[in-house]
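Researcher: Re-running this chain for the archive, since the previous output was lost when a drive failed. Same request as before.
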Amino acid sequence: MPEHEWIKEFPAAVTVCDPDGIIVDMNDRAAKGYEKDGGYALIGKSLMGCHSEASQAKLREMLAACTANIYTIEKNGVKKLIYQSPWYKDGRYAGFAEISLEIPFELPHFVRD
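Model: Regenerated structure tokens:
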């Protein structure tokens, strides 16, 4: 199996951009989620075109400061965890990866020692 083949059909949307906000990769779930915007054809395009002005401002801030952004949303009766984090290649900042994962409304929480 090629090195990253497992992520193609992973049950969370994964989208990756470079430091300028240009989409460099996405998996099947992300392409399906952005199907009306072009799906896989978005690779090579800016993330800015997929977001509102407020979201664009947040994205510019994240790209500049290399800070993570983690939150939950509810849309169409589905709750999701959105995890946006810088990624690195050979120890150097390479852009952002976003994982959008459907989660239950009632989610167990465990404290482990």
